[in-house]
Design goal:
This protein has 183 residues and is α+β, with helices and mostly antiparallel strands. 20% of the residues lie in helices and 28% in strands.
């Protein structure tokens, strides 16, 4: 249990605030672990179905996913088109990744997808991505203990992050260094 957090009458008091009746509880609450986060009702998102990225050169992008990120190609539409354009499907870390040929993003931005990786593998990923011509981006300043990150742009301006930390680690670190009384 993190300092400043107490249980009271089945409710929760954190840093002196009672979140049982607060309408802004979700905006101000510090969660201490992923297990504390539960959906507000039975019908909800079950997980991630798939991620789709529009790419200019399907074969080149497929190489990046296979050769640098270790994704397994499981489908290639070839000349048969079931969707909006030619596509390839991959599985990476149990996730379904779809690449579709088309006009990619025009410019870089910070909107990104982060994949969980082992801390010890960050440098290997960096080398493989650089070898294949991915643009490695300078990372943001990090709080010690929240994990390492490697950011890179693919050939079509999609930003990806390879991150070694977890939500629980990040929340614990932020709570531990949060100024007294700050919610």
């Amino acid at each position: 249990m993190l300092e400043g957090r107490t249980e009271s009458d089945g409710g929760e008091v954190l840093h002196g605030h009672d979140y049982r009746s607060s309408s802004k509880a979700c905006q101000n609450r510090h969660y201490n672990s992923e297990s504390e986060i539960t959906p507000p009702f039975a019908m909800g998102i079950q997980g991630l179905s798939h991620l789709t990225f529009v790419v200019r050169d399907l074969e080149r992008s497929a190489g990046l996913w296979r050769d640098a990120l270790g994704a397994q190609e499981v489908y290639d539409s070839g000349a048969v088109q079931f969707s909006l354009s030619r596509e390839k499907f991959f599985v990476a870390g149990g996730l379904w990744i779809a690449l579709m040929e088309g006009e990619p993003l025009a410019v870089h931005n910070y909107r990104h997808v982060a994949f969980k990786v082992d801390d010890a593998d960050i440098d290997t990923y960096r080398a493989k991505l650089a070898e294949l011509g991915a643009e490695i981006r300078e990372g943001r300043p990090r709080v010690e203990g929240e994990g390492q990150s490697l950011y890179f742009y693919d050939y079509d301006n999609h930003l990806f992050e390879l991150h070694s930390g977890t939500l629980g680690q990040r929340l614990a670190r932020y709570a531990a260094i949060s100024p007294e009384g700050k919610q």
